[in-house]
Amino acid sequence: MAPVSAFIDSNFHGGAITVVSTDDVRALELRLRPDNASEFAQWFYFRVHAPRGVEQVLHIRGVETAAFPKGWPDYRACVSADGEDWRRTETSFDGSTLTIRHTPTTDVTAYAYFAPYSAEDTQRLIGRAARDPRVSVDILGMSLENAPIHRLVVKDPTNKGGRPPLWLVSRQHPGETMSGFFLEGFLGRLLDPTDSAARALLAAVDVHIVPDINPDGSRRGNLRTNFAGANLNREWDRATPEYAPEVLAVRTALEATGASQLLDLHGDEALPYVHFIPADMPAPLLERRAKFEGALLVASSDFQTEHSSTLGGPNNPRLLSHWATRNLDCLALTLEQPFKDNALRPDPIYGWSPARARRLGVDMISACYVDLVK
């Protein structure tokens, strides 16, 4: 069978891959591209231009040295013909090579570690929310590459003040794109004037949302770091303007307002479950956490408490949630969503997906309501 050549493109927002050979679509040779200023590598996002109807076999070599090698077993890559509908495709891991197989129905096919969430998606999220008169948008600071760190503030006239706000922070690790879809669901319900829980929540607390704290890393297609190579979720007790100004900007705002509750939104490469990471906290906050998790178990069929990651340690002040617990005396939780499927409710077509992340955001309103209102 004669070779069929291809062209592979990753020169766009969030794109990342190293191309070794495109001589034959049945044996494309690739390698992961690390973050621009660090050795973290796991995220990939690229487009293959080749004739439709011919099976594409992609070999990504050397993945055993990725940031999270336990993320490859049972993982299935995401594929899309239109950039909107992202489905899982046949994927195998032999200990050093990730092999992806897909027969496209169009001449351009996108592959990604998870469904991407671009700067345009973030701006649409902000723009949709800003149409609501209860929402204001400001800029907390600038990234190293001079991109704005936006904050949405949702303030209802029925809230007369007196309690610190609920905070949500997204994309400390820019490759964890599921947090953007989560915010779509969360904000959609929060701003629904017919939703009684959302109305009661906004009557009790303002809500502050940072949709992308790491815009440089997001644009560059990094997995975990900003332009300087800083893992922002290891900088909360030591951030400097030269290395992590993004953290400084948000930390300053947090210290100014305080927080009643804080949700730090992440993705877990290895563990196929939705969960909160363990954390040491005073007994009253542990009681609130148990109540919060109980409410989320009722609201969401995707959430569970049996399995959780211990990455970062239960009391590391460099992590946002642990720093906030210690310095703001609030219920601060790190939410992890899977890059793989959710083992609780496997979906052979989509796996863990943008739609399920949105649904989790919708359901999270119920847990916030129970903790902060009920």
From TrEMBL:
Its cofactor is Zn(2+). It comes from the Bacteria. The active site is at 336 (proton donor/acceptor). PROSITE patterns: PEPTIDASE_M14. GO terms for molecular function: metallocarboxypeptidase activity; zinc ion binding. Pfam families: Pepdidase_M14_N, Peptidase_M14. Residues 115-374 form the Peptidase M14 domain. GO terms for biological process: proteolysis. InterPro entries: Cytosolic_carboxypeptidase, Pepdidase_M14_N, Peptidase_M14. Gene3D superfamilies: 2.60.40.3120, Zn peptidases (3.40.630.10). Belongs to the peptidase M14 family. PANTHER family: CYTOSOLIC CARBOXYPEPTIDASE, CYTOSOLIC CARBOXYPEPTIDASE 1. This is Peptidase M14 domain-containing protein. It comes from Elstera litoralis.
